[in-house]
Design brief:
This protein is an alpha+beta fold. The protein is 29% helix and 28% strand. The two termini are 35 Å apart. The structure holds one RNA strand.
RNA sequence: UCCGAAGUAGCUCAGUUGGUUAGAGCAUCUGACUGUUAAUCAGAGGGUCGUAGGUUCAAGUCCUACCUUCGGAGCCA
């Protein structure tokens, strides 16, 4: 195989001649010296071009370069005289292409402009750092699953019916079989997998046609959904906690360089240790009421009313999550939710049928829900009556009910949104930077 | 879908109570500089002021509609 050199490994070649293939990130000139910044996807290195050390041709070639021109540069690796890094004493250059004037400059840009140029924006150092952290998080998820006896059990993306709500699905035509929907979760299929393989997970893109326009929502996002036979809610919470700690530790260990580029406060991540606080929905409502945070509800005439105390049974909004989380330095697990606020498949607490054995994990620093999980209803009669209560088409769930007919066992699982975790760990302003090409309500390009 | 905000040079923005030739920084181009770090300095080019209509002697500025985008809410991961 051809010998290739990359900037992130350049320290191994001090004093030796190497060839770097990449793009010009920036160039500064100072009389008979030029300082091109060369990037290759693994990092950025400064080149030093001295007019008296190179041929006339090389000097003229460097003068022609524009930002993002593609080049192959040969030179000797040396220590930077002022900084604790390496630079390249340039000897030769081969120009692959002189780039047209590049729209993204090292100066500030607005959100819309950057979003329109997402295909170029991903070249910027911060975006590269985020994508590296994303990769580490995904790899950590898969490694954790592999090391702990889970089997990958991917679910279909075309699904014939809705797993949760029905209003928030994208649909498309499927030959002569009518409409199919893009999966908003693979959970029901993962449950079938858990009955076959014990512990499984699916991992893939999911789609929600919610007309939501906030920094915490994408219409296409990636989710990992583990599902475990013979796990109750408490086993589920133990696993979630262990899993999240593992992921954060992996990023701290392997992506410290990227976190530094993102100016992330590492101490906030180092605090993410076991055990996570576990509070019931009722206790969370107490905290909300103690802080006097109202529920804001729209009235028929369009005006808003503030309701205090917080009415039992309502789901939390962003201000309520914030009130619950702000006293802690690590993710908070809120469990035992009112059944009316949650999906049909969640198991009712036998001691209190008004609540279900579900858990939401709220990330620190205002990042909201990163994990939602539950023990699943394993009783055939209860499950089918809940399907009816939710007005879901029974025939579409016959296969799912089979799982309760043929060796039903207690089981649990959860789903974790990858972009929300990336966003939290990188402390991003918006989910759109946590995925290469975000799909938002008002943006489906590039 | 609802509430709020914004559209002026390639980009980020300024533009006064409506007033005569629409400004700056960056980017681009030309030049100076042998250690630059968002380099600096000198010069040049670059505009359908989102679109359409209206008020006025006069509209980037005021009014109406539309378009686009941004922020938030609800829903959720």
């Amino acid at each position: 195989m051809k010998k290739r050199y990359y900037i992130d490994k350049i320290a191994d070649y001090v004093g030796r001649e190497v060839t770097i293939q990449g793009w010009l990130y920036n160039i500064r000139t100072s009389g008979k010296l030029m300082f091109p910044q060369l990037r290759d996807g693994t990092g950025i290195i400064q080149g030093v071009v001295s007019q008296k050390e190179v041929t006339e041709q090389v000097w003229e070639d460097f003068k022609k370069l524009t930002q993002e021109s593609s080049i192959i540069v040969t030179g000797t690796v040396s220590k930077h005289p002022k900084k604790d890094e390496f630079e390249l004493q340039v000897k030769d250059i081969k120009i692959i292409q002189i780039a047209e004037p590049y729209p993204i400059t090292p100066k500030d840009h607005g959100v819309e402009f950057l979003a329109d140029h997402r295909h170029l924006w991903v070249r910027s150092p911060k975006q590269v750092a985020i994508l590296k952290v994303r990769e580490e998080i995904i790899k950590a998820c898969r490694d954790y699953m592999y090391e702990n006896g889970f089997t990958l059990f991917d679910s279909p993306i075309f699904t014939p019916n809705a797993a949760e709500g029905t209003t928030t699905l994208f649909s498309t035509d499927y030959f002569d079989l009518g409409k199919v929907y893009l999966a908003q979760t693979g959970q029901l299929y993962a449950e079938a997998g858990a009955m076959a393989l014990g512990k499984v997970y699916d991992f893939g893109p999911t789609f929600r046609a919610e007309r939501s326009k906030t920094r915490r929502h994408l219409n296409e996002f990636w989710m990992i959904e583990p599902e475990m036979a013979f796990y109750d809610l408490y086993d589920d919470m133990d696993l979630i906690e262990d899993f999240i700690v593992y992921i954060v530790e992996r990023v701290l260990k392997n992506r410290s360089k990227e976190l530094a580029i993102l100016e992330r406060d590492i101490s906030k991540l180092e605090a993410v240790k076991k055990p996570f606080p576990r509070i019931t929905y009722d206790e969370a409502v107490d905290i909300i009421n103690k802080k006097n945070v109202p529920l804001i509800r729209k009235k028929a005439d369009g005006s808003e009313e503030e309701i205090r105390p917080f009415p039992w049974g309502e789901d939390f909004g962003a201000p309520h999550e914030e009130a619950v989380v702000e006293d802690y330095d690590r993710p908070v697990m809120v469990y035992n939710w009112p059944s009316e606020a949650k999906a049909f498949y969640m198991k009712r607490d036998p001691d209190n049928p008004k609540v279900v054995r579900g858990v939401d994990v709220l990330a620190p620093e205002g990042y909201g829900e990163i994990v939602g999980g539950s023990e699943r209803e394993d009783d055939l009669e209860l499950l089918s009556s809940r399907i009816k209560e939710h007005n879901l088409p029974m025939e579409a769930f016959e296969w799912y009910l089979d799982l309760r007919r043929f060796g039903s066992v207690p089981h649990s699982g959860f789903g974790m949104g990858i972009e929300r975790v990336v966003s939290w760990i990188c402390k991003l302003d918006h989910l759109r930077e946590a995925i290469p090409f975000p799909r938002l309500m008002y943006r489906n390009r590039p």
